[in-house]
Amino acid sequence: MRRMFADIDADIYLMADGDGTYDAASAPRLIDAMLAGPFDMVVGIREDIGAVSRSGHAFGNRVFNRLLTGFFGRGFEDIFSGYRVFSNRFAKTFPASAKGFEIETEMSVHALELQIPVCEISLPYRDRIHGGQSKLHTYKDGLRILWKMILLLKDVRPMFFFTSIAAAFFILSVGLATPILIEFIETGLVPRFPTAILASAIGILGFISLTSGVILDSVARGNRKIKRMLFLTAGSAPRSPDV
């Protein structure tokens, strides 16, 4: 995918898994949807994925769809679909830093971050060709995808990311300090100095995390503006001649 986006110059790019699970005859529907929008990415939602895929994969797909929505405010119905079409400006501005199955997540976050016009349409999905085996490892690749999503959250929404960490530090700090404070009010003594020092240190870490979020949020906003301008100057979404 990285090589195709970098070295091939085309108006429309189509991505599909080569295991026979996607209906090749549906490709024109994806392209027609892009031209009619116009959209910069159209995702083919896999119909009846639960009946074809392993139960763990279908469940994981639902979980990650909800995580994406929770992390970034908006999401997709099927972020792991490998059947997609892209415009030229999407392909030329997509960073493509993923190394494996997390590439679909990176594509989805790229579209959400830059508010790129996208749509999803339902397409047939069937079992892979006879003798074919899935290269997706449920737990190993699931953890890689989750880690990639967390890293993207840190880059795209640093305020949310670091504020969440700061809140956890503050809650832990207050939880440790409350008994000590109560005891100090009642007796005027602080007999548990190690716990008091630990609570103070954790509180300081919370303030550091909060400050990091504020600073990095300004950086992320600037980067987002630059990426948005690069996206807009890369061209326009392909249109149908009738539009």
Task: Describe what you observe in this structure.
The chain folds into 2 domains: 2-156, Spore Coat Polysaccharide Biosynthesis Protein SpsA, Chain A (Alpha-Beta Complex), CATH 3.90.550; 158-233. With 243 residues, the protein is of the alpha+beta class. 60% of the residues lie in helices and 8% in strands. The protein is built from 9 helices and 4 strands; from the N terminus they run αβαβααβααβααα. It has helices at 2-7, 27-36, 49-52, 55-72, 88-93, 103-113, 138-156, 158-187, 193-233; strands at residues 12-15, 41-46, 84-87, 118-123. A 4-stranded mixed β-sheet has the order 1-3-2-4.
List keywords for this structure.
alpha+beta; 60% helix; 2 domains; 243 residues; Spore Coat Polysaccharide Biosynthesis Protein SpsA, Chain A; four-stranded mixed β-sheet
Q: How large, in whole angstroms, is the Cα Rg?
A: 23 Å
Count of discrete alpha- or pi-helical segments spanning 4 or more residues: 9
Mean pLDDT: 87
Q: Which homologous superfamily in CATH is the superfamily of the largest domain?
A: Spore Coat Polysaccharide Biosynthesis Protein SpsA, Chain A
Main sheet attributes: strand count, strand direction, barrel closure: 4 strands, mixed
- Low-confidence runs: none
* Secondary structure: number of strands: 4
Distance between the termini: 30 Å
Structural domains: how many: 2
- Tell me what the CATH architecture of the largest domain is: Alpha-Beta Complex
Basic shape: elongated
Helix content: 55-70%
Strand content: 5-15%
Using the coordinates shown, work out and report the CATH topology of the largest domain: Spore Coat Polysaccharide Biosynthesis Protein SpsA, Chain A
Helix and strand pattern: HEHEHHEHHEHHH
Given this structure, which CATH class of the largest domain is correct? Alpha Beta
Structural class: alpha+beta
Strand order within the widest sheet? 1-3-2-4
